[in-house]
């Protein structure tokens, strides 16, 4: 089980990202737009820098839904390999069987 502080920190980042997503997208579009003047683009960049760092999508780290583990994470299943193996061994994932050869 991961530390509660790490799990809570990641949840906080996800909330901030959702809160500032529209504002951040508009400002990013303004900074790239060549039809705007250099001053307008620069001001948009300054406003973008004033937003909280944790509102950036790149600061989110995928974690297992069950254990909070950050490594060996399957995106499709939203869980780590260890949690997946545990559930599969207990027969709680339909269609998944232990392989043997």
Would you give the CATH topology of the largest domain? Helix Hairpins
Shape: elongated
Instruction: Report the average pLDDT across residues.
Output: 91
Q: Could you tell me the strand content as a percent range?
A: under 5%
**DSSP summary, beta strand count:** 2
Distance between the termini: 32 Å
Low-pLDDT parts are: none
For the record, the count of structural domains works out to 2
Radius of gyration: 20 Å
Keywords:
101 residues, 4% strand, RNA-binding, two-stranded antiparallel ribbon, single chain, mainly alpha, ribonucleoprotein, 3 helices, Helix Hairpins, rRNA-binding
Report what the structure shows.
- The chain has 101 residues and is mostly helical.
- It has 2 domains: 1-61, Helix Hairpins; 62-93, no CATH class.
- The protein is 51% helix and 4% strand.
- It has helices at 4-32, 38-50, 81-90; strands at residues 73-74, 79-80.
- A two-stranded antiparallel sheet has the order 1-2.
- A hairpin with a 4-residue loop joins strand 1 and strand 2 (79-80).
- Helix 1 runs antiparallel to helix 2 (38-50).
- It holds the Pfam family Ribosomal_S14.
- Keywords: Ribonucleoprotein, Ribosomal protein, RNA-binding, rRNA-binding.
- One of its GO terms (cellular component) is small ribosomal subunit.
- This is Small ribosomal subunit protein uS14.
- Binds 16S rRNA, required for the assembly of 30S particles and may also be responsible for determining the conformation of the 16S rRNA at the A site.
């Amino acid at each position: 089980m991961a530390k509660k502080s790490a799990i809570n920190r990641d949840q906080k980042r996800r909330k901030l990202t959702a809160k500032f997503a529209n504002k951040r997208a508009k400002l990013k579009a303004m900074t790239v737009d060549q039809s705007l003047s250099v001053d307008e683009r620069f001001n948009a960049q300054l406003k973008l820098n004033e937003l909280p760092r944790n509102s950036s999508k790149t600061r989110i780290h995928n974690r297992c839904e069950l254990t909070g583990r950050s490594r060996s994470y399957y995106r499709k299943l939203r869980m780590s390999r260890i949690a997946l193996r545990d559930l599969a061994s207990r027969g709680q994932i339909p269609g998944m069987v232990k392989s043997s050869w």
